[in-house]
Write a structure and sequence with these properties.
eight-stranded mixed sheet, 329 residues, autocatalytic cleavage, Peptidase_T2, protease, alpha+beta, EC 3.4.19.5, Ntn_hydrolases_N, Glutamine Phosphoribosylpyrophosphate, subunit 1, domain 1, 14 strands
Amino acid sequence: MGKWAIAVHGGAGVDPNLPVQRQEAAKQLLTRCLNLGISALRSNCPAIDVVELVVRELETDPLFNSGRGSALTENGTVEMEASIMDGPKRRCGAVSGLTTVKNPISLARLVMEKSPHSYLAFSGAEEFARQQGVELVDNEYFITEENVGMLKLAKEANSILFDYRIPNGGFETCSAGAAATDSPLQMNGLPISLYAPETVGCVVVDQEGRCAAATSTGGLMNKRTGRIGDSPLIGAGTYASNLCGVSCTGEGEAIIRATLARDVAAVMEYKGLCLQEAVDFVIKERLDEGQAGLIAVSKNGEVACGFNANGMFRGCATEDGFMEVGIWP
């Protein structure tokens, strides 16, 4: 019997002026999700069950950008995406373009277990959801008043907003008078205004040494309809193998180019690095000018995180009794 470990994240890139009450609310949610996962692991639940359980909890709470509380497209609607991967046989499932599925991560698992495919998107994914009898809700369920206001701000600034919950004091930094071209931050070479995505994810290794990973997001505020980020892409936003489980967050286009999650496993396998060494290596060497973060566990019960943004909402725990929740470096 090995030792279990778990890590969760709520996004990399955090407004340095984030109000204390929001910081505390984020920490409380991460702690609650960790405790939920810990309880399941102590009951000998397999890793794949635990990552789904935890991400469902994160999707149900509107605090982070997944499920209810997802960022809005340019048309004011929600298009969600998620992926899940079971390490032992590298089974995986992913979904994109969901508009009515209450818990995208559970549909991703059904793609893995109840279909011959690995990835379903948009109308095909919605039809599969109906066939599988998953809980469906109106698109309005996912939309919050806060996000409606942030979409208006993004449209006034004619830009994509990464931190779609900038506190009131920060609104003027993205006003229509502050041209996006003045921003030093870029995505695919194009200027953006702010950087603070809030994707959610969970990685787990259970007592049998089985690793699993799950990631879920609403994407970018004011994104083009049809945009797909890293979160549903196996090897980019999510990866699990017999060595480790990884969930990423941050600038999706940079994560995709780096195949960031898979690269953690690759350098462990080919370079012989331990988990934290592998995480540090890919964050430093693979992101070019992109900003991102990730959480990871190994089959040996190790847990690690890394990010090159100014902060990342994260928490982790191990069977040895270690538990930590944090935001800043």
